[in-house]
Amino acid sequence: MPETLRDRRKRELRRELSDTATRMFLERGFDAVRVADVARACGVTEKTVFNHFGSKEALLADRWDTQLEALRARLTDAPPLDAALEVLGEELDFLVASARRHGWDEVRRFGELVRTTPALVAHQREALDRLTQAVAEALAERDGVPPGDPVPHITAAAVAGLWTVFAASLGQHQGKGAARAAKEVRADLARAADALRRGL
Fold this sequence. Notes:
Oligomer: single chain
Helix content: over 70%
């Protein structure tokens, strides 16, 4: 189904809000920028910002919904670890593309901001918890077992662990440049997934 003009405008505004917020947060620090400041810079109301993003933190860490939707779609017919690796591979591609547009140094500064801002650290943890729960629910539904069945839950926790590996590996290799860092992160994810396959 082709994208409507209304949907395209919503998508473009959402990206403008996120890009503007990211630039302002990097320049001034997360705590020094208000949502009202971002709204004013984009020529919209504060309410409009919250129509697109549920929180100030989501303005910066706005990739979780995209990843979750992609993961849910793949879990309908792909093994959980393969689905997760595909989604995280796409996220690496996104980061490399961002580095081409804005420079790898800005991507590194973005990561540092997320790691050192308590509100953003908490937001990332909550997002990972939501992803874990969503994976457990999707697997339970796919496999026809009750929502409280332990197998989907432990599988979901293992799958979510790949996101932890992704973040740790990216932090470890970020000084090597975008292409080299992406290659190293992919290798670390593959090793982690192999360890899970042997265990699962």
